[in-house]
Amino acid sequence: MHNNLIFFLQQIIIVIKIHNSKNRYEYFFMKINICIYFNMEKYFKIEKYETGEIISMLIEDLNTIHKYNHILFIRTQTTGQWLDNLYKDNKNITRILYYTDKTGMNEENKVQKVKKNNKKKRWNKKKSIIKSEFWERVHSNQLEDKIKSLNKKFDLICIDPFHEYDESKRDFTLLLSLLNDDGKIISHDCYPPKKLSVPKYITGEWSGVTYLTFVEIAYKNPDYYYGILNIDTGIGIISKKEFLTLKNNLNKEKQEELLLLHQNNDIRTYDFFTENCKDLINMIDYNES
Asked: From residue 87, how far is each of 21, 134, 219, 233 by CA, in Å?
């Protein structure tokens, strides 16, 4: 009931904006936003899903409506396997896979292991794994040069970064500069369960501290709009323009406190994040009563 009331009130505001809009493009764009917002609730109604399944649905829904011309996918040796099956026949999507020495495995062997594990995923069984040559591989130390060499802006950027702090922060910072005027970044692992929020790389399931860097990016770039869907391990969304559920009037004092806790390696960091996530980064959860 609470979510329905909020949605109704937001629609009244949008109707007012539509009547005040001066061109058809703005009118059309607002109508699309209404559709996206209304459909977001459906993701929370799915009871059983594999890692990456919900974020893939969100990306496909956004692209179906907006028909993006320029899309960038970024994953690593050990993260983002779900991206392998997303638009696997579209060779126009820019795909970058970066690898790091922190995994303790060489790049070739690790990618092969990831592919093997991918075949075990229930929701992947109906789809073939994307051809490896579609991914351009670079070492993590070369990612910044690679990003700059693209000399291109993107409508949609989808990323599953290496989940240690330095890499996640670097990735978000670089990608913000690649967004078109109405561009969006979609990221995995922005609201992980506590057992997966281990700061340093571990084998197996791992979400690290990408969630903390997402907050820091919001703190340092307050003009963008942010939100995290509290489903799966957290789907983070960044938009250059207002996008209904996303906000940019976040609590900077609490953001500063969280980042200070992290800098001091305080054991309360994760709990502070979960207790204040709405104020910190606009956590969105339709399952709340």
From this structure: 35, 11, 33, 22
Cβ–Cβ under 8 Å, residues 224 and 177: no
- Please name which of 260, 153, 157, 277 lies closest in space to residue 214, comparing C-alpha atoms: 277
Distance, in Å, from the CA atom of 283 to the CA atom of 272, rounded to the nearest integer, reads 13
Task: Give the Cα separation of 77 and 137 in Å (integer).
Answer: 9
246 touches 226 (CB < 8 A): yes
How far apart, in whole angstroms, are the C-alpha atoms of residue 208 and residue 79?
A: 11
CA angle 203, 277, 179 (to 5 degrees): 75
Contact 69, 163 (CB under 8 A): no
Given phi > 0 = left and psi -120 to 50 = alpha, else beta, which region is 53?
Answer: alpha
| Phi, psi (deg, nearest 5) at residue 213 | -70, -30
- Binned at pLDDT 50, 70 and 90, residue 232 comes out as very high
**Contact indicator for 231, 288 with CB cutoff of 8 Å:** no
Q: How far out from the chain centre does Cα 104 lie?
A: 26
Lowest mean pLDDT among 58-67, 169-178, 200-209: 58-67
DSSP letter (8 states) at residue 129: P
> How many alpha carbons lie under 13 Å from residue 207 in its C-beta half-sphere?
23
Please state whether beta strands 154-159 and 71-76 pair in parallel, antiparallel, or not at all (unpaired). Answer: parallel
Q: Say how far residue 245 (Cα) sits from the centre of its chain.
A: 15
Give the full edge-to-edge strand order of the sheet including 136-139.
136-139, 94-99, 71-76, 154-159, 179-187, 235-239, 225-229, 283-284
With beta carbons less than 8 A apart as the criterion, state whether 231 and 240 touch: no
State the alpha helices, DSSP H only, in the chain: 2-20, 24-43, 53-66, 107-118, 143-150, 165-176, 210-220, 252-263, 269-275, 277-281
* pTM for this model (two decimals): 0.82
